[in-house]
Amino acid sequence: MIPPTSYLYVPGDRPERLTKAFNRGAGAIIADLEDAVTEDNKDQALNTVTSWLDSLTETPAPIWVRVNTGPRREQELRSLAGHPHLAGFFLPKADTPADVTDTHDLLQDLDHPKPLAPMIESATALVNIHQIAAAPGVFQLHIGEMDLAADLGLSPGPEETELLYARSLLVIASRHAGLVPPAAPVSAEITNHNTFRASTEHLKRMGYTGRDCIHPTQITITHEVYTPTPDEIHWATTILAAATENHGAYRDTAGNMVDEAILRRARNILTTQTASA
Q: In the chain, which residues have pLDDT < 50?
């Protein structure tokens, strides 16, 4: 499964936003039952999301649901797991592999296994990240940086260098576990498009594939950043064609060695083109 280029969070207790979600151009929708919903509205949100899913005749983009923690999680999983329009579940505050395994086991017992997206949001989760990534059912890691920063006592500056270690750790753990690369975190920046673009470009260079978004303008920028340029596609296509003709690694016309690492980068560009299409 190729990961979406963008995920759009939509509050689960806002039916008017859920109805318009597919019009925003996101690669996937996250119907949020957790942080976007106040405690008093949790039951209403579950009913609203269930009714919305029931009303759909098609799903132009995959639909995920971010469930809650604690006792509510099991209630939500039991209510939603069997829905045919649901792609999978986001698991907030996944601090230990047991948080993932317990969810996976419950879905197995319900005969409705679904892909899982654990969210790394604490120091404990960072320490356990390799075990979390290797837990059954995991499709992709996501990072909840606002909660993580609060847990660690961080105050990220404009360059967000305070978060580099955690961000890199997600990329490393994902690769080690054989997962698709992680999706970049949400940003509260919805008015300064240049700042959001620069942040997204930086996260792309770090190894992130796509980004979680909270506003439609962020989706547009994310797609622009992650969609390969015509020059990149031409380079990748040319490199791979020449490798086929040369039966593997070769020296190009400029005298540079083109080996498997370069070929992997070319294949990744073409894969990203497919995901962004």
A: none
